Amino acid sequence: MNPYEKKRRWKFFLLIFAILIGIASVFYTDSFVKKMQREEANQFQLWVKITERSMLLLDNENLNSIIETVRQNTKMPVILVNKDDVIISTTGLDSTKTMYPGNDKLVYDSLYFVKQLKIMKAQHKPATVKIFDDEFKAYYKDSFILTQLRYFPYIQMGVIFLFLLTAYAAFSSARKDEQDHVWVGLAKETAHQLGTPISSLMAWVELMKSKFDAEDDPLIAEMENDIKRLEIITDRFSKIGSKPILEDHVVYMVISNFIDYFKVRTSDKVKFTITGDEQVRAMLNVPLFDWVTENLLKNAANAIENEGSISINIIENLAKEQVFIDVTDSGKGIPRSKFDAVFQPGYTTRKRGWGLGLSLTKRIVENYHSGEIFVKDSELGKGTTFRIILKSSLTYEPTTA
């Protein structure tokens, strides 16, 4: 299992664990809410009985004070109505919504209390209150504390989710910065270590030329080409972490020159073709962009098991002033679910390799050339097309008739 798969599996396990915690919190709170609902229902029944008894014990001051205390400490709001649904009294509601106009008769804010009564009717069935020979109906709704508890687990899950999201973003940013420092440090050290042996190789080639009079020897010429290639690779590594200098180049020529070097070092069973616009231009850093081309061509060649072909097509999008570079192979293809995963560090389908080529390619295209790279299309057993999008260095003015 590659590191990317391990990381994704750990993310999945953590997500499942967080969901289980959330479900457990919801169930626990729900059981607690149901218990409070039963207690409030019992308290409501007690309020009903006390209301009925209070009218019969008007002359008993001690009992009246006890009854009033119980009624005032009722947690949930209650409305008492007559048989015509006219509000007679309220408990636990906003007292500022009532007033005494001077005749000792309560006047209600009809809109407020009608709304509250509607809520109560929707939440609970009424209880019948018998006072002397009259019957009334009492309604109640859940207390403010119970309502808060009902929504508490969801608020709690939301806060936890936001915290985890913020923490994940912070850790991801810190990890990305750490990875960038590792990339830069490794690249600079590699360039430094390659410098000395390359200089020695150059000196040995010059010595062989002079000692064996081999100025025109084709083998020596190929050795020089490979040494120059090593110099280019060293230059690439030295540029990692530094802002590269982009220059105006003909894209077709840059890619064609690299293919001429690459194809003689690849199997004869792989055929290379380059087509498209030969004049389109873009701002490029040639050593770094050659690295992009090399990684894509190597991956394409490795995907071809026997005979096959690799084609590069260069297209100019005049409307968006962009350059499209499509690299297509006739290899084994990539599953659609892996289109994004192939650019992750450590992802590889080969037994040998670090899985860093396409990750580095994406970094060079996006960070250093302000472009895009993605898997445009792929079909298992038929091949894959990678697309690079670069900003054209040419600007076009619309023509007027």
UniProtKB/TrEMBL annotation:
Molecular function GO terms recorded: kinase activity
EC category name: transferase
Transmembrane annotation, as ranges: 12-29, 151-171
Catalysed reaction, written as an equation: ATP + protein L-histidine = ADP + protein N-phospho-L-histidine
Sequence ranges assigned to domain Histidine kinase in this UniProt record: 189-394
Keyword Transferase part of the UniProt annotation: yes
One Pfam family from the record: HATPase_c
Protein name as it appears in the record: histidine kinase
Native organism: Pedobacter lithocola
